């Protein structure tokens, strides 16, 4: 058994025992109350799921196993000469709960290199899709095409004991994470560089090699990728891509099926696709205003016209956060430290001044602040990646780290099939009448 797997086995066995005791002693204790608004309102804030890798605080933002993003930027191992954390380190932390040392991260990078071969039929499957197919669709199809290699699915068919689910999930997770950059880079080079593919450089770390296969050799971009792939990795379990992974995995669909489903959730404009939408929206603004240096007043008018046409301001607002997203602030700091001159970055910062008061004035937006997607496009364009339809794929490669490490935990803890209760509006009316003596008018 490899050293990370051994560590995960020990940690998950120990927590599994603790959870059993916890449930035996306290299983009937209340942890939440639910009001009707939440039932109709996308289940906001209902505590109903276990997710070990990270926890989101509305005011403070995300913590991965207790560590904030600024702490991770300081404590996680870095590439030689680099300043940003290696995403491998975050995966280790999310999986086993401790910050790895340099040697452990080196081992993980090398282990993923050994597992990174993408079967040839996956490329042929991608090649069969029309070139204009959205890159997120291509990614999802590519992950599905690899499903025939699932260790979990094969072992389940041969009668795997349920005490071994965690083991097969770990193997699939490691293989899938190792292969994703190659698949994702293949899609990019196929779509935007005449299918001129770049082979992996196995001397590089996971994120650095992904940048290399994209054709982005500048060290600044590689560093940004390491930061990007770290901060997008997880946002506790309730967000749509994480929850989809959790739900699909709970049927014992293997990690390939679960991750592909999660990618489809991430591809929605209210979730991960927002990073492409931000740049599309800014570029339309620049074209409409006829200037790459719009004033705050011009931006303000443009924001109001977007709202008046019944659309959202992409990159702003959040279902849980109530403060500027620390993932936005980390990228802003990265830009301050590394980008001397960029009109687009300056626009992003001006939007940060202009949008929150306008959203607040609407009186209904619970969080007027920027989220993770508000900044990434401006930095990607600064480094020369202009194809914004691709941006969500970068998010997806990172998100796999969090949701798959959580899937290892779900199978190790033996979490069951997810099956919440739904009701009809007729049921709601009857309930209100019976429990609260409220007569609800017929429409
Ligand atoms: N622009 C305009 N209106 C917004 C808004 C925004 N950025 N954010 C919220 N609102 C509106 C909602 O559409 C809703 O309006 P209605 O009552 O008319 O339907 C109202 O404000 C209340 O919404 P909320 O409770 O504040 O926010 P939700 O939890 O319902 O939605 C989110 C959260 C992210 C979907 C929403 O803020 C949004 O649409 N933002 C823009 C898209 C975006 O950036 N998504 C990326 C999120 C991060 C990620 O997952 O990657």
What features would you describe in this structure?
It contains 20 helices and 2 strands. With 443 residues, it is mostly helical. It folds into 2 domains: 1-271 and 396-443, Citrate Synthase, domain 1; 274-388, Cytochrome P450-Terp, domain 2 (Cytochrome p450-Terp, domain 2, Orthogonal Bundle), CATH 1.10.230. The chain has a two-stranded antiparallel sheet with strand order 1-2. Strand 1 (54-57) and strand 2 form a beta hairpin. Helix 4 runs parallel beside helix 19 (391-412) and helix 5 (102-114) crosses helix 9 (165-192). It starts with a helix and ends in a 7-residue tail after the last helix. The mean pLDDT is 97. The chain binds carboxymethyldethia coenzyme *A. The site of carboxymethyldethia coenzyme *A has 22 residues, from loops.
What are its keywords?
Cytochrome p450-Terp, domain 2, 59% helix, 2 strands, mainly alpha, 443 residues, single chain, binds carboxymethyldethia coenzyme *A, 2 domains, Citrate Synthase, domain 1, two-stranded antiparallel ribbon
How would you describe the shape? globular
Bound molecules: carboxymethyldethia coenzyme *A
Q: Would you give the CATH topology of the largest domain?
A: Citrate Synthase, domain 1
Q: Which percent band covers the strand fraction?
A: under 5%
Q: Which CATH class of the largest domain?
A: Mainly Alpha
Question: How many strands, what sense, and barrel or not for the largest sheet?
Answer: 2 strands, antiparallel
Cα-based radius of gyration, to the nearest Å? 23 Å
Supply the helix-strand structural class: mainly alpha
Can you list the strand order of the major beta sheet? 1-2
- Number of helical segments with 4 or more residues: 20
**How many domains in all?**
2
Give the topology string: H per helix, E per strand.
HHEEHHHHHHHHHHHHHHHHHH
Span between termini: 63 Å
Quaternary:
single chain
CATH superfamily of the largest domain: Citrate Synthase, domain 1
Q: Give the tally of β-strands.
A: 2
Rounded mean pLDDT score: 97
- Which stretches of 5+ consecutive residues score pLDDT under 50? none
- CATH architecture heading of the largest domain: Orthogonal Bundle
């Amino acid at each position: 058994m490899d050293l990370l797997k051994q560590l995960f086995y020990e940690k998950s066995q120990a927590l599994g025992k603790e959870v059993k005791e916890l449930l035996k002693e306290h299983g009937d204790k209340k942890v939440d109350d639910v009001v009707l608004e939440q039932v109709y309102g996308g289940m906001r804030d209902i505590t109903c799921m276990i997710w070990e890798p990270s926890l989101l605080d509305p005011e403070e933002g995300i913590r991965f196993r207790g560590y904030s993003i600024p702490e991770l930027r300081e404590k996680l191992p870095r590439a030689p000469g680099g300043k940003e954390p290696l995403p491998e380190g975050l995966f280790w932390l999310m999986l086993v709960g401790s910050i790895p040392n340099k040697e452990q991260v080196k081992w993980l990078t090398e282990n993923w290199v050994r597992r990174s071969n993408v079967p040839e039929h996956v490329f042929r499957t991608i090649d069969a899709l029309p070139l204009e197919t959205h890159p997120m669709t291509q990614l999802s199809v590519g992950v599905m095409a690899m499903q025939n290699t699932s260790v979990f699915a094969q072992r389940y068919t041969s009668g795997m004991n349920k005490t071994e689910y965690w083991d097969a999930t770990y193997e699939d997770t490691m293989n899938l994470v190792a292969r994703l950059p190659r698949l994702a880079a293949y899609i990019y080079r196929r779509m935007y560089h005449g299918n001129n593919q770049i082979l992996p450089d196995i001397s590089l770390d996971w994120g650095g090699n992904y940048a290399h296969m994209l054709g982005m050799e500048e060290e600044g971009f590689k560093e940004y990728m390491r930061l990007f792939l770290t901060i997008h990795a997880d946002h506790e379990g309730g967000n749509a891509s994480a929850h989809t992974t959790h739900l699909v995995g709970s049927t014992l669909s293997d990690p390939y099926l679960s991750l592909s489903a999660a990618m489809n959730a991430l591809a929605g404009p209210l979730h991960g696709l927002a990073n492409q939408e931000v740049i599309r929206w800014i570029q339309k603004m620049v074209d409409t205003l006829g200037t790459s240096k719009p004033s705050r007043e011009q931006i303000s008018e443009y924001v109001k016209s977007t709202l008046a046409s019944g659309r959202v301001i992409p990159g702003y607002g959040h279902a849980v956060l109530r403060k500027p997203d620390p993932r936005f602030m980390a990228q802003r700091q990265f830009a301050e430290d590394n980008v001397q001159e960029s009109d687009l970055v300056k626009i992003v910062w001006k939007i940060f001044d202009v949008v929150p008061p306008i959203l607040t004035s609407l009186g209904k937006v619970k969080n007027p602040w920027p989220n993770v997607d508000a900044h990434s496009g401006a930095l990607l364009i600064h480094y020369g990646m202009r194809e914004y339809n691709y941006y969500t794929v970068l998010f997806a490669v990172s998100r796999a780290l969090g949701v798959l490490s959580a899937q290892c935990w779900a199978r190790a803890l033996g979490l069951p099939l997810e099956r919440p209760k739904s009701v009809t509006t007729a049921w709601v009316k009857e309930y209100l009448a019976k429990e609260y003596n409220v007569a609800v008018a017929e429409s």
